[in-house]
Amino acid sequence: MSASVSLAVTHLVPLAKEVDENKVTPGVLGFIVFAVMALAVWGLMKSMSKHMRKVDFKESPDTEAEQPRPKADSQRG
Question: Which residues contact 34 (CB under 8 A, 6 or more apart)?
Fold first, then answer.
């Protein structure tokens, strides 16, 4: 090890000991898991968007709405 590396390590060791050992943090693994989940959701949303653009939805005409209904007042006379 070079002198500068050993000097840097000796400065970092006291900083590591100042960290509270009872404090729980997600750390690097938590960040990696979160990043993978975020990328998965982004990929799924992109795929869903692509599939939704392919959907050709044509509504069938409502036959009951096209036929005029006789009015109750006109039949009573």
Answer: 26
H/E stretch holding 76 reads helix 72-76
- What value does the mean pLDDT take over residues 23-42? 93
Locate the DSSP E strands across the chain: none
Kindly give, in sequence order, each residue whose CB lies less than 8 Å from that of residue 51, ignoring residues fewer than 6 positions away.
Answer: none
Total number of domains constituting the chain: 1
DSSP classification of residue 8: H
Q: Report residue 40's pLDDT band, with 50, 70 and 90 as the boundaries.
A: very high
